[in-house]
C-alpha cells in the first residue's frame, strides 16, 4: 500500500506541476505577453489542460486510489485526506462526459466574446440567446453532477464544497434582515461627499511603494512573490513559494489600487502559509473560494479599513501624498475609506452594500435554474431587485445585468462565495481576537504577527486538507455563522452614519 | 495516409506546445520569478520535459511515422521534410538509453554547481574530477549516437546537423591563416584607448529607448515580442508570434546592452519571420545554432558596426547621450565600436579575435575527446593556446579555462557554431548585397527592409525545413565558405589598424 501511495503522490504531483505551468501561462498572458501571442497561447493552454485532465481522469488515478485502503490510515492524517479529496474530485470529474465539456468550452468561448460586445453596446438582446443556452447547460450540468435537495447545490459545490442552497438562502436572509434597512437608510441620506480625500493627485509609483510597505508588514514574503499590473487584479500561484499578485493603478484615485493590493495580499498570505508538506499535492491550495475570500476581505476590510490600522499608517500616507491629504485628519480619512454609497457596479461596492449585489445575483441564478424566471425577463428582474435592495436603478444593461463576466463563463454558483468570504472573515477574526485581545494593540503598532499566526495555525497551513465546514468548526468551535458579520456591519456603519 | 499525417501533426503540435510551455517557465525563471520559487520551478520544468520526451520517444510517434510513405510526398514539400526531420530526431532520441540521460542530468546539475564555485575561487582542481567524468560521458555519448569518421562529428551534429569535424577543422585553418597574423599585429600595437567614447554616463532608460528605436527599424515586431532584463542576455520564443529578447544594462558602458540588443534582435527576427504554416510543428524554429548565429551576428556586427548604419543613427545617439559623445565625431565613434583588443574573456571579444577563442576551445575539445589531452593538463594547454593565438595569458583559471559554462553542461561541440555563425553571416550578407546593391544606401537612410526581405525569402521563412548545408547552398549557390568572411575581416580591420 505504501508503494501505491507513493505512486499516487507522484502522479498527482505531475498533474499539479502541469496545472501550475498552465497557471504561469495564464499569468503571463494577463501581465506580460505581447498581444500577438494570444492565439498560440490559447493552444498551449488547451494542450496543458487537456493533458492534465487526461492524466487525472485516466484509469491510473482510479487504480492507485483503489490500491490504497484509506481505512488503514489515521482519519486526520494528510494521507487519508489526500485520498478522500482525490477520490471526490476524481468521481466528480468523471461525471461530466467529454462531449459535454467540449460543448461547454465552445459555448463559453463564443458567449464570452458576445458578452464583451453586448456589454460595450449595452445590448442585452445580443447576449440573450447565448445565456439561454448557458442556463440550459447549467441545468444539465447540475443533473450530471447530482445533488440531494436542490440542483443549485451541485453548482455551489463546484466552488464551496459542502455548501447547500438552503444554507446559503438562510445566510442571506439573515444578512438581508440585518443590513438592507441600514443600507436603504444611508441611501436615503444622499451622498455627503465624504470620500473626496481619496480622489486627487496620487502618483502611481508612490501608491505602489506605499502598498508594498503595508504588505511587508502584513507578512507577505516578497522573496516568494511579486506584484505586476493587469486590467483585472488577481492573485495566482505556482506552489506556495511563488505567489503573485496583480494590481490596477489609477493615478487620481487612491482606493482601487490600495485596497485591491491589500485584498490580493490576503489571498497571497493564504497560499504562502500552506504547510510545505502539501506542496505539489492537490491539498496544497486554499480549501474553497469562500475561505479564500475570508482572508482577502479580512486584510482588506476588517484590518485595512479599521481605525487601529490607520492610526499606524496614516501619518506615512499623509507624508507620501501631501497634496490631497494635507487638510484631512485621521478621522476624516477613516470615514472616507468607509464611505457607504449604494452603487450600480458590484466591484466598486462598499462593505455594507456589497452583499446585496451578491444576494440579487444568487436569487436570480436560483430563479433561472428553477425555470421561474426566463432569460428574456432577466434585465427587468435585475433592475427591480436593485431598487428593492439598494434603492437605485441602472440606466442601461451595461451597468446592470451585463456587468459581470461570470454568467458568460457558465459560472453559476460562484457569486455566493464572495459573501461567504465576508461572513467568515468576521467569524474568524473575532475568534482570533477573543483568543488574542492584543491583536488590536499590535495593529496600532503596525504589527500583524499574532493575527497572521492564528490564521496560519488554524486555517492557512491546512490548505485543502479539511472541508470548509469542518475547518471553520475546528477553528471557531461552531459552523459558519452570519451573526458576527451582521453585528460587525451594524456596529461599524451604525456609528459612521 | 493523410489521416496518419494529420495525427502526426497533432501529436507533434502537442509536444511543441509542451516545449513552449517549458520555454516560458525558463524565461520566467530568468526574468521574473521570485527567488523563492526556484526549487518548485525546477520540478515543474522536469515534469514538462519528461512528459514531452515520453510523448516524442513513445511508440505513437514511430507508429505514425511508419504509417506515412514519405516517397509519396513531393520531396521538397513541408510534409516530406516534416517527416524526415521527425524521423531523424526520433531515431537520435532513442539512441541514448534512459539511464544515460538520467545520469547526464545528475552529473550536469552537480558539475554546474561545482563549476560556479570553482570559477568564483579560481580553483580548477575542484572542477577537475567532474570534468573528467564529463569527458568520459561525452565519449560514451558520441559512441551511442554514432558517427562516420570522427567521434566529434556526433557531438557537432547535436547543434549543427551535417557538420563534420573535418569540415570544421578546414574552416578554422582558413580562419587561422587569414586572421591570426592580423590579430597578433594589432595586439603588438598595444591599446590606443580608442574605445573610450563607449564608457561614460549612459543612463539605462535612454539606452533602452535608443536600442528599441533601432530594433523597430530592423523590423522586430514589438506586437509579437518584448524585452526584459536578465543576467545573461538571450532570445526565446513560444511560437513565431511571441519572440522575446533580454538585455543586461551597464549605465557606464554603452556597448554591452546596445550590441547585445542588436544581437538578440537578430535571433528574434529569425523566429518572427518563419512562415506561419510551420507554427506548432518541429520545423517552426531556426534550422541550426550556426544559421541562427549568422542572423544575430549580421545584425549586430555587419550591419550594427558598419559606417552606413552609424551615418544614420549617430546623430540621434549623440543627441541622446551628449555628455560622453559631445566631442566624438562619427568616424571616431565608428572606430570605437570596432576596437580590436585581444582579451581573455570570450564574451567580451571583438569581431576579429572572437573566433580565436572558439578555435582554441574546439581544438581542446577534440584533443580531450581523442585522449591526446588529459583534463589535468587542460589549464596549461589553454594558456599556451591563448598565447599563440592572442598573445596574452590569463592570470588565473577563472579568467582562463573556467570562464565558460558549456563544459559543465556537457555541451561539447557547441562552441564551433558561434564561428559558423560568423562565417555564414558574411556569406549570406554578401549574397544579399550582390543581388540588391541598394542595401547599403537603404542602411544610410535607416531602412533595412530589402536586407530583411532577402533573408526572410531565402533563410528565415523556411525554419528547419532545410538542413543547414542545403539551405546555405540554396540561398548562396554554394556550400559554406570561409573566404568572404576572412576577406571581410581583413578589409575592415586592415583599414582600421
TrEMBL record, chains A, B:
EC id: 3.4.17.19
Gene3D superfamilies (UniProt xref): 1.10.1370.30
Residues involved in Zn(2+) binding: 263, 267, 293
Signal peptide range in chain numbering: none
Pfam families, A to Z: Peptidase_M32 (PF02074)
Reactions accelerated catalytically: Release of a C-terminal amino acid with broad specificity, except for -Pro
Gene Ontology terms: biological process: proteolysis
Family according to the record: Belongs to the peptidase M32 family.
Protein name, as recorded: Metal-dependent carboxypeptidase
Lineage: Bacteria, Bacillati, Chloroflexota, Chloroflexia, Herpetosiphonales
Amino acid at each position: 500500500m505504501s508503494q501505491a501511495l507513493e505512486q499516487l503522490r507522484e502522479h498527482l504531483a505531475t498533474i499539479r506541476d502541469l496545472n501550475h505551468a498552465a497557471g504561469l501561462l495564464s499569468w503571463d498572458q494577463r501581465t506580460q505577453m505581447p498581444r500577438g501571442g494570444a492565439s498560440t497561447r490559447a493552444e498551449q493552454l488547451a494542450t496543458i489542460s487537456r493533458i492534465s485532465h487526461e492524466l487525472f481522469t485516466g484509469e491510473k488515478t482510479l487504480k492507485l486510489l483503489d490500491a490504497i485502503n484509506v481505512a488503514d490510515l489515521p482519519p486526520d492524517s494528510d494521507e487519508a485526506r489526500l485520498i478522500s479529496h482525490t477520490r471526490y474530485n476524481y468521481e466528480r470529474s468523471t461525471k461530466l462526459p467529454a462531449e459535454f465539456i467540449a460543448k461547454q468550452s465552445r459555448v463559453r468561448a463564443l458567449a464570452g466574446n458576445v458578452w464583451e460586445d453586448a456589454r460595450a453596446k449595452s445590448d442585452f438582446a445580443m447576449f440573450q440567446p447565448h445565456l439561454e443556452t448557458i442556463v440550459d447547460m447549467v441545468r444539465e450540468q447540475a443533473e450530471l453532477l447530482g445533488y440531494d435537495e436542490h440542483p443549485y447545490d451541485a453548482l455551489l459545490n463546484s466552488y464551496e464544497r459542502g455548501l447547500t442552497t438552503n444554507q446559503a438562502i438562510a445566510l442571506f436572509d439573515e444578512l438581508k434582515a440585518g443590513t438592507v434597512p441600514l443600507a436603504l437608510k444611508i441611501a436615503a441620506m444622499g451622498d455627503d461627499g465624504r470620500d473626496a480625500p481619496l480622489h486627487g493627485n496620487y502618483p502611481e509609483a508612490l501608491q505602489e511603494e506605499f502598498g508594498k510597505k503595508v504588505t511587508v508588514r502584513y507578512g507577505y514574503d516578497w522573496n516568494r512573490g511579486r506584484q505586476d499590473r493587469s486590467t483585472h487584479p488577481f492573485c495566482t500561484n505556482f506552489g506556495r513559494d511563488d505567489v503573485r499578485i496583480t494590481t490596477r493603478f489609477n493615478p487620481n484615485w487612491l482606493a482601487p489600487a490600495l485596497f485591491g493590493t491589500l485584498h490580493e495580499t490576503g489571498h497571497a498570505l493564504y497560499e504562502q502559509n500552506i504547510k510545505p508538506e502539501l506542496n505539489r499535492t492537490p491539498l496544497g491550495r486554499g480549501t474553497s473560494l469562500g475561505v479564500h475570500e475570508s482572508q482577502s476581505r479580512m486584510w482588506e476590510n476588517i484590518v485595512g479599513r479599521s481605525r487601529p490600522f490607520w492610526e499606524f499608517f496614516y501619518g506615512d500616507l499623509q507624508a507620501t501624498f501631501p497634496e490631497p491629504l494635507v487638510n484631512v485628519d485621521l478621522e476624516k480619512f477613516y470615514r472616507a475609506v468607509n464611505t457607504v454609497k449604494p452603487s450600480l457596479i458590484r466591484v466598486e461596492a462598499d462593505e455594507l452594500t456589497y452583499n446585496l449585489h451578491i444576494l440579487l445575483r444568487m436569487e436570480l441564478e436560483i430563479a433561472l435554474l428553477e425555470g421561474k424566471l426566463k432569460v428574456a425577463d432577466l434585465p427587468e428582474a435585475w433592475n427591480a431587485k436593485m431598487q428593492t435592495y439598494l434603492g437605485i436603478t441602472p440606466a442601461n444593461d451595461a451597468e446592470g445585468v451585463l456587468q459581470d463576466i461570470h454568467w458568460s463563463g457558465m459560472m453559476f454558483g460562484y457569486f455566493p462565495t464572495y459573501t461567504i468570504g465576508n461572513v467568515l472573515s468576521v467569524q474568524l477574526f473575532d475568534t482570533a481576537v477573543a483568543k488574542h485581545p492584543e491583536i488590536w494593540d499590535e495593529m496600532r503598532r503596525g504589527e500583524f504577527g499574532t493575527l497572521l499566526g492564528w490564521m496560519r495555525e488554524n486555517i492557512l497551513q491546512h490548505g485543502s486538507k479539511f472541508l470548509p465546514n469542518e475547518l471553520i468548526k475546528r477553528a471557531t468551535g461552531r459552523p459558519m455563522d452570519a451573526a458576527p458579520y451582521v453585528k460587525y456591519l451594524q456596529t461599524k456603519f451604525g456609528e459612521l452614519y
